[in-house]
Amino acid sequence: MSSLLLAGDLGGTKTLLALYEREADRLICRVQQRYNSPEWPSLAPMLQSFLADHHDQSRPVIAGCIAVAGPVQRGKARITNLAWDLDEKELASGAGLTQLELVNDFAVLVYGLPHLEPHQQVLLQQGNADPEGPLAIIGAGTGLGMARGIHAKEGLIALPSEGGHREFAPRNTDELLLMGWLLRLLKLERLSVERVVSGTGLGLIYLWLLHCGAMDENYPLKAAADAWQSQPPGTPGRPDLPALVAARALEGGPLALKAQELWLGAYGSATGDLAIHDLASGGIWVGGGTAHKQLQGLQSQAFLAPMRHKGRFSDFVAGLPVRALIDDDAGLFSAACRARMLAECR
Question: What is this structure's pTM?
Answer without folding.
Answer: 0.93
